[in-house]
Amino acid sequence: MAEKQTEFPDIKFWDEKAPKITFINPKEFHRDQLLKSMGLSTLPFAHSFGTSDREEILRRQRLIRMFVENPKLRDSLLYGNSDYYSQVPTYGQAFLNHFNPKDDHNPFWRTVIHICNWLRKARDSEQKIAAEAEELLAFIDQTREDNEALEREWAKKVSGEIQKTAEFQGVVFLHVQGNYGINECKLVNNVSFGYRLYSYHLFSNCEPWKIRDWMDFKPIRAFFNLVNNRRARKQYAPLLVQGLPKEINSAIECHIGKAFKNLRLDYKDKIEVCCYFNYDEYGLRVRIVSLDFFDNNNGLGSVPEISTSFKGFSPKQKRQIARMNRKIRRKAQKINRMSRKVLSALAHIKKNNFCLLVDGELIRSKTVDLQYQWPSFSGMLDNNPELKEEYNRIKRYREYIVAKFKILRQIAKIADTFAEKAKQLNRPLTFPEILGPDEHLFSFEELFPIHLIGRHKRGNGNGKMTAKDIVPIRSLHPLNGQMLAFTGQNASGKTVAEEAIVHEIFCAQSGFPTFGKKVALNPKSKIGMVLLERGDGSTVQLMVEKMARVLRSIRESAQNGSVVVLDEVGTGTNSTAGMAIGQKFLQAFAKEGCSMVFSTQIPELAHHAEANFKAICYNFEFDHTISPGIGTSDADRLIARLGVDKLLE
Known about the structure:
By secondary structure, this protein is an alpha/beta fold. It folds into three domains: 54-163 and 379-416, no CATH class; 168-373, no CATH class; 427-641, Rossmann fold (3-Layer(aba) Sandwich), CATH 3.40.50. It has 18 helices and 17 strands. The protein has helices spanning 31-38, 54-69, 71-78, 92-98, 107-124, 131-164, 217-228, 230-235, 246-259, 315-350, 366-371, 377-382, 385-425, 494-508, 539-554, 575-592, 603-613, 635-641; strands at 22-24, 168-179, 182-187, 193-196, 270-280, 283-293, 433-434, 442-443, 446-447, 473-474, 483-488, 520-521, 526-530, 562-566, 595-599, 616-620, 626-628. Strands 1-13-14-15-11-16-17 form a seven-stranded mixed beta sheet, sandwiched between helices. Strands 2, 3, 4, 5 and 6 form a five-stranded antiparallel beta sheet that branches. β5 (270-280) and β6 form a beta hairpin. α5 (107-124) runs antiparallel to α6 (131-164) and α6 (131-164) crosses α13. The protein is elongated and about 130 Å long. The chain starts with 21 loop residues before the first strand and ends in an 8-residue tail after the last helix. The relative contact order is 0.12.
């Protein structure tokens, strides 16, 4: 076909190579645990979550929002065919089934039409669709008719060629045996040979076999040479067919039996019949090539008479040779009598030895296809540049469309996961506001620490935490370049609040919706975290090393692109040393102008930060309430809360 080549637009749905947030001390960020709590850990895109590219974040938001707001569109991608049929089948019957003319469309186009219909419905509804999905829909609408017509015409031509590869001809040997006046005809196993008449694996010297006048003497002789020559049979192994479908076997036996119907054979007399057969779209045709008497007595009929004139035979040996010769003469006479019987029936046989036996529908039978997995597809394309070029065009188009559908399916799965979580938690979904690159802010009205779901309850509680056990985080000042200091009771939620801030930034910059309220931020490029966890070295040593690592990295970044979270600053040593370490590091971070959240059990350090670095301080209580001010930890209340006060009496 002379149609112009399809130009594929560069439509981006999800850029997996977009720059990602850099986590300083990455082990402090429990990424896998967070994604697992949301049901997103196994998605193919998981490695690309948390990008610092604002345009990529907004694109992901648009697409996820489209599926959140259009459940039916989401379901059309998630619960339809898991295989979008990007590949064209390359085996006979599978190809014919795929391009079945009785169907309105093959499976690929059925899927395309189904998804596009739902995209149109979403576009015409109040929810609308993302600009990227609109662009893909417009491309499919512009190119579908031409590409579907190309595929349909190409499939017709290839289907015809594939059906031809089901044609084969060959030689088959049968035994016709007399049985009390009734002739029995039976095909002899393992002596039938055939080849695919239009096989694209034919060698050049096999080309004469393609001619329609297949009973010509030369092709027959060439085929007999092939059958009887071991080297040739090995060379042409891809063309040979050992054994035939049972329908063809039965048809040949029936035909030969009818041909010998009027020939009455003696009991146990056998005729070996060699037939040449041809099977194509018109059915099965058979012609008898040769007839011979079959000797069932060790082949004595073909043994020449042994001479008794050779000197050296004993009298006993000569008598044995004479008996053998008499048997041979009697066998030869019997052969002559059989030959006369056979010859007398040849006139009748010739009238029936070339006839239509099997309906052409057998070509498309499952039996034939299962026994002959036609390996002709690649060879067919190699020998027909026009078909190959059309095939490559069809393949490129399919692969492009299917690649886009698969990305949309993964995005729909993300949306479906959040929609299901929202139902389970009974919380609405909202999308964070992504501010411009010149802004410097992270703010929220409420955060919901979803990462706590599934964790074991602490204190007097038993079991695992559910949505009812989680207290949303509220009443915190926006982060726009200053410090927030968390103080108060132990186990009151300070670390949880710090983690929730980091998790919210990560999820927002993945394009995800949030379970919180009124979240807004400019994209962050670096997040430095220092959590109180054990490692190689003392607690204070680890804390200092991690904070130093964060400080060095932050100094290389823009102020508005970094967030620092320090947990339990000054812990691991006495309060005096902890105070000194904390003052030095807080002063260094304050000079960098980055947004910073830190928690501490040293009230004096919080007062110092408030007085010198304008830190906004908060007091966390056991009931997870948060209030402005600086709190202290009450050891007696903590012991009683954990239920060990009686143990200590």
